[in-house]
Amino acid sequence: MKNTLGDLNNHLFAQLERLNDENLKGEKLQEEITRAEAVNSVATQIIANGSLVLKAKKMMDDRMDADSELPKMLEG
Asked: What is the pLDDT of residues 27-57, one digit of tens each?
């Protein structure tokens, strides 16, 4: 199974729709809130990971530019 950021977006909107259900009350509402918190936590990690991959890709692309400078921490 291969998920995409588009799939994540769909899951987040589906979760939002479940939270918007005005018929949810009491224990069922609390269960949905708990589920939303878990989905949010996982989504945050997925987005952070995607951001890190993008930064690494950009850094690699920049390194291929002959005029690029190394970050200060990597200079000798």
From this structure: 999 999 999 999 999 999 999 999 999 998 8
Q: Where are the domains of the chain?
A: 5-65
Is-contact 50 5, C-beta < 8 A?
A: yes
Q: Which amino acid is at 62?
A: D
Q: CA dihedral defined by 48, 53, 59, 64, rounded to 10 degrees?
A: -170
| Residue type, position 2, single letter | K
Could you give phi then psi for residue 4, rounded to 5 degrees? -125, 170
Report yes or no: 24 and 62 within 8 Å, Cβ to Cβ.
Answer: no
| Closest by CA position to 37, among listed 22, 53, 18, 50 | 18
Helical packing angle, 26-63 and 5-19, nearest 10°: 160
Q: Which pTM does this prediction carry?
A: 0.68
